[in-house]
Design goal:
By secondary structure, this protein is of the alpha/beta class. The chain has one domain: Aldolase class I (TIM Barrel, Alpha-Beta Barrel), CATH 3.20.20. It is built from eight helices and eight strands, in the order E-E-E-H-E-H-E-H-E-H-H-E-H-E-H-H. An eight-stranded mixed sheet has the order 3-1-2-4-5-6-7-8. Strand 7, helix 6 and strand 8 form a beta-alpha-beta unit. The longest helix is centred in the last third of the chain and has 20 residues. The protein is globular and about 50 Å long. The chain starts with a strand and ends with a helix. The structure holds iron/sulfur cluster. The site of iron/sulfur cluster (SF4) has 11 residues, from loops.
Length: 251
């Protein structure tokens, strides 16, 4: 089976546990204002690559990934669920032994009406990094161009299947850095008992040059990088929201 791949990073240290072989899928339906990979957006671009090619490349450097594994990110991997499912299955059966699999997704692309398209992927996924971009539907739409509901539906499905998930939230000054919004996010994810981690990532401006190269206007040109010192407090706000949400559910 062939997938449409944007690129591969052979020494990833921020997308899942340990050192990871990271596959960036081509194509994304979202248009996050802070996206630093706009070159992954167009589904028609990228390089057709087989599952076997990726497994071979992984095996050549297997020793690096002893405490890590493979992560598939994007773009949006849920746009090519059958390929990612086949890839994860192959990694579990890899010649050198089972490899830990991780999906990094915005959740947008999950089609609740077509669960069969995702069955293999979800069955072969050891961990999901789920980005929830904004807790409020209207602001989520403004920030990403897409609805929040499918993201929450995907999160709910992961919880139903008890697939371990780390929730990620990018803190952007003036957009997603209020304690109120972070608490609201905590309440949204409170019912998901499969959540094993929470990462609040500070917005940075490192992707700006790519916009110039692609001739796209950068939507956050006036927004400074996030003050990292505020991240622990925002994380606490999310945890507070989760706690309050769970207390409410227990009543
Ligand atoms: S979901 Fe990821 S790749 Fe897609 S626009 Fe948002 S940040 Fe960029």
């Amino acid at each position: 089976m062939l997938g449409n791949i944007h690129s591969i990073e052979t020494f990833g240290t921020v997308d899942g546990p340990g050192v990871r072989f990271v596959v960036f899928m081509q194509g994304c339906p979202m248009r996050c204002a802070y996206c630093h990979n706009p070159d992954t957006w167009k589904p028609g671009e990228g390089c057709k690559t087989s599952v076997a090619q990726i497994v071979d490349e992984f095996e050549r450097n297997r020793a690096f990934y002893r405490n890590g594994g493979i992560t598939v990110t994007g773009g949006e991997p849920l746009l090519q669920p059958q390929f990612v499912g086949e890839l994860f299955a192959a990694m579990h059966e890899a010649p050198g032994g089972r490899v830990h699999t991780c999906l990094d997704s915005s959740g947008f692309g999950w089609l609740p009406g077509k669960p069969e398209r995702f069955e293999k992927l979800l069955g072969e996924c050891d961990l999901v990094l789920l980005d929830v971009k904004h807790a409020h539907a209207d602001a989520h739409k403004r920030l990403t161009g897409c609805d929040l509901a499918p993201v929450l539906a995907f999160g709910g499905e992961l919880a139903r299947r008890n697939i371990p998930a780390v929730i990620r939230h990018v803190a952007v000054p003036g957009i997603t850095d209020s304690e109120e919004e972070c608490e609201a996010l905590g309440r949204l994810i409170a019912p998901w008992r499969n959540v094993v981690g929470l990462e609040v990532l500070p917005y940075h401006t490192m992707g700006v040059e790519k916009y110039a190269e692609l001739g796209i206007e950068y939507p956050l040109a006036e927004t400074p990088a996030m003050n990292k010192a505020r991240i622990p407090a925002l994380r606490q706000s999310i945890l507070r929201g989760m706690k309050a949400g769970r207390a409410q559910l227990a009543r």
